[in-house]
Amino acid sequence: MTFLYPWLLWMLIPLGILLYRSCTFQSRIHTVIAILILLSLSRPVLEEGIQPSKIKAKDLIIALDVSYSMRARDLAPSRYDYAKALIGSLLERNPAANVMLIAFTTNPLLLSPPTTDHALIMTALESLRPEYILTKGTSLQKLFERLPRLHASGKDLILITDGGEESDLAVLAEALRKSGTYPVIVGLGSKAGTTIPDKNGNMLKNSAGDLVISRLNPMLRRLSDAADGAYLTAEDSPQATAEQITTLLQGRTHTLEKRQHRYRELYWIVLLPAVLLFLMLHTVMRKWLRKWILLGLSLIGIPASAGILDLYHLQHAYSDYAQQDYNRTLSHISRIGEPTLQSALLQADSYYRLKRYKAAREHYLGIKSRSPRIKQQLYYNIANTYAMEGNYDKAKIYYTKALQLGSDKDAASNLALVIFLKSKEEKPPSLPRPKSQDDHASKGTQKSEADKKKKKQSDSNAGGGGGNGGREQNAKKSKNRAEGKLKSSKQTQKNPLSSKVYELINKGYVRETKPW
After folding, report:
1. 27 and 103: one domain?
2. CA–CA–CA angle 394, 399, 403 (5° rounding)
3. How confident is the model at residue 382 (pLDDT cuts 50, 70, 90)?
4. Is residue 466 domain-resident?
5. Is the domain of 189 the same as that of 224?
6. Distances from the Cα of 56 to the Cαs of 51, 98, 114, 256, in angstroms?
7. SS3 of 457, please?
8. What is the per-residue DSSP string for 311-329?
9. pTM above 0.70, yes or no
10. Which of 14, 269, 347, 357 could form a disulfide with 385 if both were Cys (CB 3.0 to 4.6 A apart)?
11. Which range marks the domain in which residue 338 is found?
12. Number of H helices, E strands in the chain
């Protein structure tokens, strides 16, 4: 639950002080009524997420010419400043309009995608600095060719410009018709024209040294006629021009799909007790109300206040869980009418604390979520239930799934532990190696040098020269194999994860065909 106007809750402080200092029963009831009314005015709601909804509104594209010629001052204070004021006045007169803002010179630039947040559009417009725009040309054709890629078909185009450089009317009209828009062209400037000041305050000159005169292009009127649109020139004030445009677009509304937050209003649940308390104090029916108020609440109040009761039980469930009273936690959760993600997780965690691992696992598996963070937590908890039951193979699978969704020190540590425990289970018990007869025979080899030479000579004469040498060589091979096995065992203890497990972890994602 949340409040749409939480700043009103600050008024609870003086009301709480007043309730504490009230001397009579009636004054306290009056204070409680004021508190309930204040809570109702703060708009308590339950969020139901973002949902699409269809609305009737104007769908506008405002294309603003920001070329160098818009600095001309035949419109006060300049053509560009007049255009900005015109756009602001248009937005004020069409508060529900869905507006896209484009700035263009020789190339168009999208300043704001379609939105009903007009403050955002004005912020984008104010952030545009015309002094940094050095382009002196204007291309209407490129603007019209860009519109189809912006899904402009069926929308109303408000073109604010002093005219482009193109002279082929047929090409421009064809490009405008292909865009699928209804054009309203606003011509800024005068027929006589005027000079253009540069950034230093001097008048702009061409390469030949002559003054540049910027005039309103007369082709704009013919273009609007060829595209079956509307044409108008600037009035004395931006507000008057905006009023003319609004009149031209009167009745041209579109069905738009807008995504917005949906809430379930709870203000009346708080307001109802305030009304009942007031009636109990100040009407002749107060005795009857006192007698039947509980019956009335049982008939109409209990279903309506189910959300508040759910919040009540959830808060008490959290409190009992913090005090390690898991049975009472489960009791409170069982009374919740509409389970939520929080209550489902708390229920599964309580079963886990009670060492009812199978029940906990079933509840974890029953929780559905698209959030990778929640899914990682669920995989980790499921793995813990398998590990506590001694099912290390299943635990290894779910710890790996948890690590695929992101790094987690606890999951990595537990994964290493279950792999180690599994290997301990599979390792056969080691038996003590009996002593070899060669150990006793080796003592007999400590003889005098003469006996060794004599034995060596006799072995040589008997043709069995490889006998003892072969035993020594076999002994060296056995020793090398034992050392290699010991080294391998150490590596396993140090790095118990297999290469396949590390490969899965390093991929960092889960190959799922369907999300939970």
Report:
1. no
2. 150
3. very high
4. no
5. yes
6. 17, 10, 15, 6
7. helix
8. HHHHHHHHHHHHTT-HHHH
9. no
10. 357
11. 306-357
12. 22, 11
